[in-house]
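Project outcomes to date are best conveyed with an example. Our students and postdoctoral researchers have been running inverse folding experiments weekly, and each run begins with a structure described purely in C-alpha cells. The record below, which covers 252 residues, was selected by the lab manager from last quarter's runs and is presented without edits.
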C-alpha cells in the first residue's frame, strides 16, 4: 500500500471511524513506519487541543439527547472508548521513543565501527610494510587469502581503470579475521576491508552508504554474507568508482 493511501487511512484512525479490524491493521503499520507514527501523533494532539477549546461551550443535556437520537449511531467505534484513545496515544509516543533510540543506537554503533576501521587504515598506510602479500595482480592476491579466512571473495580486474592493486593482509576486527586489500590511486592509498557480515561486529547500513569522516571518504555495503568497507583520503567519487568495480566482481 502506498504512503499516500496510508495517509488517508490515518484520518479514519484519528477520527475513530474505522472498524476494529481496520484499527488493528493501522496499528501494525504505525509500529513499522516512523513517518506515519509522527503524523498520527500530531493529528491526535491537534484533536485533543480542539476538544479542549470546545469545552467553552457546553450544550444542555436536552440538546445532547436530541442530537444523539437524530444520529442513531449503529455501531460503537473504538475511539469512543476513552481507555482506547489514551492507550493509543501512549503507544504512539512510546513507538516514537523506541524508534528514535533504535536509530541512534544503530548509527552510533556503525559510526564507531567505521572509525575503528579508519584507524586501521591509517596505521597500515603509515607502516613500512603495509601488506603481507605484494602484487598488482588480483590472481595472486586472492589465492593468498584462501585457507586464511573462512570465506572467499572476488577482486576486480583493474584494466583500463586508474586504480592499482598494491597487495593485501590479514586484519583482525572485533576479534574476527578479515581481509584488507590496499589500492593506489594517484599516490592516494585506499583500503578495502572485506569482513563477515555479523550483527554487532561490522558497520551496519541500509543498502550502499557513502559518507565523509575526518577527511576520509568511506563507502560500505553488504553482499553475499560479507561486509565491504572502502576507505581512502581521496574524493567520494573515487571511492564510489572502486566500490562499483568491487560490486561487479562480487556478482561474477
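After processing, the design step wrote out the following sequence:
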Amino acid at each position: 500500500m502506498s504512503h499516500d493511501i496510508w495517509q488517508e487511512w490515518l484520518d479514519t484512525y484519528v477520527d475513530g471511524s474505522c472498524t476494529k479490524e481496520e484499527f488493528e491493521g493501522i496499528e501494525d503499520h504505525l509500529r513499522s513506519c516512523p513517518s506515519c507514527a509522527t503524523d498520527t501523533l500530531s493529528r491526535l494532539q491537534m484533536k485533543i487541543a480542539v476538544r479542549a477549546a470546545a469545552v467553552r461551550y457546553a450544550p444542555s443535556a436536552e440538546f445532547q439527547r436530541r442530537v444523539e437520537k437524530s444520529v442513531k449511531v449503529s455501531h460503537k467505534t473504538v475511539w469512543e472508548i476513552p481507555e482506547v484513545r489514551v492507550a493509543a496515544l501512549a503507544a504512539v509516543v512510546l513507538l516514537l521513543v523506541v524508534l528514535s533510540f533504535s536509530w541512534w543506537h544503530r548509527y552510533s554503533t556503525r559510526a564507531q565501527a567505521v572509525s575503528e576501521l579508519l584507524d586501521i587504515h591509517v596505521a597500515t598506510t603509515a607502516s613500512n610494510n603495509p601488506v603481507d602479500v605484494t602484487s598488482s595482480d588480483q590472481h595472486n592476491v586472492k589465492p593468498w587469502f584462501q585457507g586464511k579466512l573462512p570465506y572467499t571473495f572476488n577482486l576486480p580486474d583493474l584494466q583500463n581503470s586508474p586504480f592499482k592493486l598494491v597487495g593485501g593482509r590479514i586484519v583482525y576486527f572485533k576479534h574476527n579475521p578479515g581481509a584488507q586489500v590496499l589500492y593506489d590511486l594517484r599516490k592516494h592509498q585506499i583500503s578495502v576491508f572485506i569482513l563477515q557480515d555479523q550483527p554487532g561486529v561490522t558497520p551496519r547500513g541500509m543498502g550502499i552508504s557513502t559518507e565523509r569522516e575526518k577527511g576520509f571518504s568511506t563507502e560500505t555495503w553488504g553482499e553475499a554474507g560479507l561486509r565491504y568497507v572502502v576507505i581512502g583520503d581521496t574524493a567520494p567519487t573515487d571511492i564510489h568508482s572502486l566500490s562499483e568495480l568491487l560490486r561487479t566482481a562480487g556478482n561474477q
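Strands lie at 133-134, 164-173, 176-185, 188-196, 209-213, 216-223, 226-232. DSSP finds seven helices and seven strands in the chain. The training component of this project remains on track.
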